[in-house]
Design brief:
The complex is a heterodimer of chains A (414) and B (117). With 414 residues, chain A is mainly α. Chain A has 19 helices and no strands. Chain A has a domain of 102 residues. Classes of the chains: A mainly alpha (414), B alpha+beta (117).
């Protein structure tokens, strides 16, 4: 094999292992020491060593185990420099065990790692970024852009969170039965937060950047593999797949924003929708509804309405009521009002929105103003609509949506 | 904390827009200004005249030197600013991301100097 070809093959193999096993390797390296940062350093050294060695020696039969062995050695060397002797013997034993096996299997502790990232001791807002970095290996700068945070600030927050895992004794373990529901909610919330950032990211068309929404779906898939009998895990994956299936249909050929009701269902990814439907059915069979199953059921209702032309708005509103009863946010309340407009008319919907007035969280919540603008326009309240459109336009990040709202505003009667 | 959002853009692009597009552009900025005011964070803002109208003044060897044109000879020129009062850098960046300038150019977010920084 020519040198460039050998290098290309080494890089391709390393990329494939990074894609499939980054989190597994970090989880295993950090499980005993709880030192995630040291595990990251060791693994990054191991990847560098792989790119240096593999073009000469050929790619190993078990690249995962090769990387783990090198990373282990680096971690132990670094650890030895810091604290002589401690734990080293145990680590060497583990390492020897791995090297002796015919077809070494790296134990999968990714679930334990995810629970550590979403531990109550870790600040809520950093859980999703932390998970993206340590389970998927996404770099801090990419995560920072997606979450609209300065890269240096995001870097500091991630370092602080990793210190906390080490110092606050955050365990790498599956929670006990009685804690599982709460702890799992935190993991699901973090994955969904990553998805929501990716979904809202107008830069998602940038091919050079790994798409955050896709990464969140991938994490959801990993979680489903690890916890196949948790209905909310199935519900979250279904929810993300329903949304993902409509991703491309949100833009016209010339880049204009297309709202759900104007989307061409033939541009939806039907295979993804079928997968979502079957996940949701499987989740429902457990008879234990939750937030993500309800949200997925709403997505399912939208898909059916657009495909069949028949709508059941009363049941959509009932789903929103159930979500609100679970401690829903103003976000849910805004969407519920939009559904009420279809069921009982714009005035009833505006009355429902009116109940939210005074909630300070809504002043900067763009969808609230966009909904209020649409409903006011439908109710014939031109001035209210104009004002609400103005604020919705001013709060919008996405240039295509901004233009769309400007057209809607211009279409109001003078 | 006060932050200055400085909007940099390519001035020649603006001149190539149709009157309707320019009107839509100005309207987007007006809406943004209104959203800042409604949220109670707007401390000041201005659109600047074309950079060709700029003059630089500096003292060299005890003599004032006056030159035509902007200080930096870059493709992107400062075209306007917003001064906002928000809790922290995250909030300032969130507002910068909503600025129409982030779609057609670059928005630089700078904290105003304070004793504690």
């Amino acid at each position: 094999m020519s040198a460039p070809a050998a290098e290309a093959q080494a890089r391709a193999t390393a990329d494939a292992v990074a894609r499939a096993s980054y989190g597994k390797l970090i989880a295993f390296l950090a499980a005993h020491t709880r030192d995630v940062a040291a595990a990251e350093d060791a693994l990054s050294d191991a990847f560098a060593a792989a790119l240096e060695n593999w073009p000469r020696t050929g790619c190993p039969d078990h690249p995962e185990a090769w990387l783990l062995t090198v990373a282990r050695r680096r971690a132990i060397d670094a650890g030895r420099r810091q604290q002589r002797g401690q734990k080293v013997t145990r680590e060497l034993e583990l390492l020897a065990g791995l090297e002796n096996e015919e077809a070494p299997q790296v134990p999968d502790l990714r679930l334990e790692l995810m629970f550590a990232c979403a531990h109550p001791a870790i600040e809520r807002s950093v859980r999703a970024p932390l998970m993206l970095q340590v389970v998927l290996g996404i770099n801090a700068a990419t995560i920072a852009s997606a979450f609209l945070v300065a890269p240096a600030t995001m870097g500091q927050r991630l370092v602080r969170a990793k210190n906390r895992i080490r110092e606050a004794g955050v365990p790498f373990e599956r929670p006990l039965r009685e804690d599982l529901a709460d702890r799992l909610d935190a993991v699901l919330d973090a994955i969904y937060a990553a998805y929501a950032e990716g979904w809202a990211d107008p830069g998602g068309t940038d091919a050079a950047r790994r798409d955050l929404a896709e990464e969140a779906v991938y994490l959801g898939g990993v979680l489903r593999e690890l916890l196949p009998r948790e209905p909310e895990v199935l519900g979250l994956l279904a929810l993300m797949l329903y949304a993902e299936a409509r991703r491309k249909a949100r833009r016209s050929a010339c880049g204009d924003y297309v709202p759900l009701d104007a989307q061409d269902p033939s541009r939806w990814d039907l295979r993804m929708i079928d997968t979502a439907e079957s996940l949701l059915r499987r989740a429902a069979a457990f008879g234990s509804p939750g937030r993500f199953q309800l949200e997925a059921a709403l997505q399912s209702a939208h898909v059916h309405r657009r495909r069949s032309g028949a709508a059941n708005w009363a049941s959509v509103v009932a789903l929103y009521d159930a979500l609100l009863a679970l401690g829903g946010s103003p976000v849910v309340a805004v969407n519920r009002a939009v559904a009420i407009a279809e069921w009982q008319g714009a005035e009833a919907a505006l009355a429902a929105l009116g109940a939210l007035e005074g909630d300070s969280r809504l002043i900067q919540y763009q969808p609230y103003w966009a909904a209020r603008a649409e409903l006011s326009a439908r109710a014939g309240r031109q001035d209210d609509a104009r004002r609400a459109y103005e604020l919705a336009i001013g709060l919008e990040r996405d240039a295509a949506v901004r233009r769309f709202l400007q057209w809607r505003q211009a279409a109001l009667r003078p | 904390m006060q932050y200055l959002l400085m909007i940099y853009g390519n001035e020649t692009v603006w001149d190539t827009l149709s009157p309707a597009e320019q009107e839509q552009g100005v309207a987007a900025y007006n809406a943004y200004t209104e959203a800042l005011r409604n949220a109670g964070v707007l401390a000041g803002s201005n659109r600047l005249a074309h950079s060709a109208a700029a003059t630089t003044v500096r003292e060299t060897d005890g003599k004032s030197q006056v030159l035509d044109g902007p200080y930096a000879d870059a493709k992107e020129q400062l075209g306007g600013y917003y001064l906002i009062e928000v809790a922290d850098q995250d909030a300032a960046i969130a507002w910068a991301a909503r600025c129409p300038g982030a779609s057609h150019g670059i928005v630089e977010v700078r904290p105003v100097w304070s004793e504690s920084s």
